[in-house]
Amino acid sequence: MIRRILALFTILLVSSTGLTHASPVRIKDLVEFDGVRSNDLVGYGLVVGLDGTGDGLRNAPFTEEIMSNILERLGVNVTGEQFRPKNVAGVFVTATLPPFARAGSMIDVTVSTMGDAKSLAGGTLVMTPLNAADGEIYVVSQGSIIAGGAFAEGESASITRGVPTSGTIPAGGRVEREIDFNFAAIKQMRLALRTPDFTTAERIERAINREFGRRVALMLDAGTVQIDIPATKMASAAHAIGRIENVDVEPQRKARVVVDQRSGTIVMGEDVRISRVAVSQGNLTIRIQEEPLVAQPNPFSDGREVVVPRTNIDVRQDPITGLAEVSGGTSLSEVVQGLNALGVSSRDLIDILKTIKAAGALHAEFIVN
Prior knowledge:
Blueprint: H1 2-20, E1 25-26, E2 31-33, E3 39-48, H2 61-73, E4 88-97, E5 106-113, E6 124-131, E7 137-144, E8 146-153, E9 158-175, E10 188-193, H3 198-212, E11 217-221, E12 224-228, H4 229-232, H5 237-244, E13 248-249, E14 256-260, E15 265-268, E16 273-274, E17 277-279, E18 284-290, E19 293-295, E20 306-308, E21 311-317, E22 324-326, H6 332-340, H7 346-358, E23 362-363, E24 365-368
Parallel strand pairs: 14-24
Antiparallel strand pairs: 1-13, 2-10, 3-4, 3-6, 4-5, 5-9, 6-7, 7-9, 8-9, 10-12, 11-12, 14-15, 16-23, 17-22, 18-21, 19-20
């Protein structure tokens, strides 16, 4: 019986702890590893095989130039020729070269029109080199495009669904050059927090040192934790990072209220608090209606029509029910219950939150998009 009581007490204690604390997060989901980064690539090329939805060459002369260059490289002399095809389009090709990508591996690429092409559906990208910021070619791309929309038109109407002027080529880029980076020679590795915070950085430091049982990590500032690779006594830097990135840490987040005014969306963080405050809210509606009158002249008279303007203005104000008290919330659920008690729409709630913030009763960072 005593063992059962102790087991039940342990379960209740663990359950209550899980309810009052945030769930731990792996370090790999909180930081970026110094030097382990992707690289952006860009190139321009030609898409062929379109069903009459390509560039108008008068409006996109660069397409004709690209096509001429490709044909000349293939041994076709097009000097002085006039091109008027509608099944080709000049495009920008973009991709992201992931870290440690090796020669011969395949990556996805994105293709977007440069001119007035209406759709890339059914098109094929001709071999296109992709350059990095240093001007070197790292990837060569080619393949059939999967467009993200559809376009159709008739004599007097047209319809567009999605974005047919942009598409992707899954595994359409082949890595031709590797980025020179000797990861095994690293002695010091810095972890850059995606959201800098002194408390979170300190927790990461303590968690890593506890994992290895010695001083391995050192917090440098709110956004950086330095790792001493030799102190980990692992076989290589890769082994040390592989062990560190799966250590669980409970991050500390700033209290934030994020508002999207276009959609009326409100998102509150767990640590948002509101002091005791009284709110009164009422809507003022002004309606303006124009009803012009046309005065006709008498029959057989030497007169003309006169338009007499007439404007009706109606001002209405919703009845105010008085001040509503929002009690000080010590948890997110209490804050939400207090705001819901006002019985207003999300649009009005945005204005109320801004006013509460201005009054100094909202203890959170207020972000409006």
